[in-house]
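note to self: dont lose this again. the chain is below, predicted strucutre after it. 720 aa total, dont forget to put it in the shared folder this time
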Amino acid sequence: MRKTQVVAALLACVASAPLAAKEGMFTPGQLPEIAEDLKETGLEIDPETLTDLTGFPMGAIVSLGGCSASFVSPEGLVVTNHHCARGSVQYNSTAENNYLENGFLAKAKGDELPAAPGSRIYVTTEITDVTARMRDGVDALSATERYDTLEQRMKDITAECEQDAGSRCQVASFYGGAEYTLIKRLEVRDVRLVYAPADSIGKYGGDIDNWMWPRHTGDFAFYRAYVAPDGSAADYSEDNVPYQPEHHLKVSAAGLDDGDFVMAAGYPGSTQRYATLAEVENTFSWSYPTYVTLVNDWIDTIEEAAPEGSDARVKYESLLASLNNFEKNTRGQLEGARRVGLVDRRREREEALAAWIAADPSRANYGEAISGLVALTEESATAAKKAFWYNFATRPALLSAAQRLYRLSQERLKPDAQREPGYQDRDMTFFAQGLQALDRRYEASVDKAQWLLFLDTYLEEPAENRVAVFDNALGLTGDVDAAALSAKLDSYYAGTTLDDSETRLALMDASPADFEASEDPFIQLAVALYEYEREQEAEAEERAGRAQALRPAYMEAITQWQRSQGLSTYPDANSTLRVTYGNVMGGSPKDGMAYLPFTTLEGILEKDTGEDPFNAPAKQLQEIREKDYGPYALGSIGSVPVNFLSDLDSTGGNSGSATLNARAELVGLLFDGTFESVNSDWDFDPRTTRTIHVDTRYMLWVMDKVDGAEGLIEEMDIVE
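---
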């Protein structure tokens, strides 16, 4: 395309974009309220169908417990992002048999590999409002009593729900605890890896392209859900059979074009759209800058201790990917906050809210709640700063395992219903699998290098932020000699048996006395720190109890104030099922910058250097040069679309969300946002908010032309 044509296309893209992106991550129950706008935006199916969680298409949408996914065949085939399944790829990889580098494809069901321990597929089956039961009488309780009562009620309601075998239930809080919903899910425990492209496709562009546009990443992979022969949820067994979902999505090979309607259904993690000014100021003035500095040092430490190509590097690949992603996201948050003037915008919002409250004496209780919440926020921030470096200094993998095991021995002295979440009988499978997974994610030399880094930062803290029991246990008193400290840590790694998975698993049945008599140095340290950490936990729970009294009133004030302006209030994301909708579109996030809505195969050629992370497979490059598009080309761009942009409202946890067209056919997978839009977790900006999706046409092209996954293509319902 000639230069003048490129400029014209960019201008047309920007000029044709709607004036405002669609803000809101809506619960299924809210969709009838926005049915008219859904239709006007382009939805062709009845909006009411989206409220039926067991019907089509919502019955095909699942959670992986951190990522989203969807069924795409009647035989339990699940599609999600490559980066969501990458932990399972890494878990099954070694330096000699590296599926991260080479990719993995099971040619037959018998070749599929067990996913990483703890992997789950959750199918939402029922939602029930339990607000009245949760909140009855709690307003009259003290802060600690309120926290304990609400937690106990959550556990009781969850236990009742989970009497149905194979169910995993959750009580979710909305609007700061003003509303509570019981979510019932089928828990699929036998999850197997079916297909994941090599990193040179699934992670193409790596950390350089992460959060950036234009993007050319094949961020997709497939799992399969298995159950017992009778259809019940079961742990891994060769006798298990593929799960047969009631609904699965059809996969579009026709795709979509610029301006077309799209919606995403998934499980966004968390947003802070309603955070107070005090919370925003603390986060952006201290928390985020501190994290950025620490995480960069952390990444450098791992990369030095685990050289490229070593088995240790394979073990830490998932952690490195997470840290790089977090670091870039956090920098984007800081830059975005500065660009939009987030602190000033939040201050203006609070001033406007305060004026609305002051205009009517009956609203005085709102003002009192907000004042209390601000004071509590400052108190919590002070406690968090004090605990920050200690929490990292006690992060070594085997110490964490010892602490959890000793806590388990203490919790088991209580009736199951009274134990802390994470230590009940319902949690023991996860507990054991977490201990097992450590084998493929731990190397003593790397763990020690990280511990030394965290101790160095901890030792720089003022005396009031140090913890005496920890200092005494490690000999961190007076002048600390670096060589002596290194030797001390060596004695921990040499003297422990917790690096053996069988030992860790056996300790799940140990008594507190067994731990207290142990000579294992990590266990001794865990025992020494136990009482101090329980004191800190009790203080945090008391603060949480006060927040549970104040935040619902604050959210009620926000809701009523916005309603007076004709605006609706959607709840902050909280890892529950949400729907967001809008259109395919490019944009102009800042002066002089314009984004086209699609990237193409040819863009891979332009970026490719032959070196990681721009090292596409030779077969793929050959197919692109030969312009072997098959039936997957988009006429308006003259190529196969790789990734596309939309104005959908999304955040972390949305990764892997099904991107659907107006007929609820799968047209892509949501996998990222642009660097300019990551700050939308805190403040929605319609100009900059853009979400990145991998196009199903690129997925099918890779499966067909590069990886030979014809069997999976045949298994899915492909529509044109």
